[in-house]
Design goal:
globular, 187 residues, 39% strand, alpha+beta
Length: 187
């Protein structure tokens, strides 16, 4: 059995190498991971790093899909449980559970958000010709969360539209932290 720390280190090295290739425009590369027994993928350019699960600070009165926050080199990073975000139960942590740090753009600002996954699999190159449009129904998650269905070794990998899955506005509204203009007025 592989050491989870060395596996995580190897995944991090593969991630960095894949990001360099993708930035050079040489590949459609995706980080694949397992979530509730299903294989998902996110574009490699959205992924900053993969870290060990732990040191989470829970925030009271938040929806179940917001697991808490972590301190990532002095920055407070919210951590979202994708399984719960997709309407399922919270991810049960194991030795292979990790947090994928994803960078999103919102209103010309960059936001880091952690995503809890069961296990990181690998970095895959999926040519555009092997990506089908998302199904309009029948998926376990909202259709607008799916960017496409990648064909890999005879099976489908769900390619997530991570900007929609982790929409800063939608998550803030669901968490009840989105301020209305009236909230700022003094009575």
């Amino acid at each position: 059995m592989a050491n989870p720390v060395s596996t995580q280190h190897t995944s991090q090295q593969a991630l960095v190498a894949a990001q360099h290739l993708a930035a050079a425009g040489e590949a459609n590369q995706y980080l694949t991971f397992l979530l509730s027994g299903e294989m998902y993928a996110v574009g490699i350019l959205n992924v900053k790093e993969i870290i060990e699960y732990g040191n989470l600070t829970e925030i009271p009165m938040m929806p179940a899909f917001i697991r808490g926050v972590i301190n990532l080199r002095g920055a407070v990073v919210p951590v979202i449980d994708l399984a719960a975000r997709f309407g399922g139960r919270q991810t049960e942590t194991s030795r292979r559970t990790c947090i994928v740090i994803v960078e999103l753009s919102h209103d010309e600002e960059r936001h880091d958000i952690g995503v809890v996954v069961d296990a990181v699999s690998e970095v895959l190159e999926i040519p555009g010709s092997e990506i089908e449009p998302p199904p309009s129904f029948g998926a376990r998650i909202r259709a607008d969360f799916i960017a496409g269905m990648g064909k890999v070794a005879g099976k489908f990998v769900i390619i997530l539209d991570i900007q929609k899955v982790l929409s800063v506005d939608e998550i803030a509204a669901l968490a009840g932290t989105h301020e209305s203009p009236a909230a700022n007025e003094v009575p």
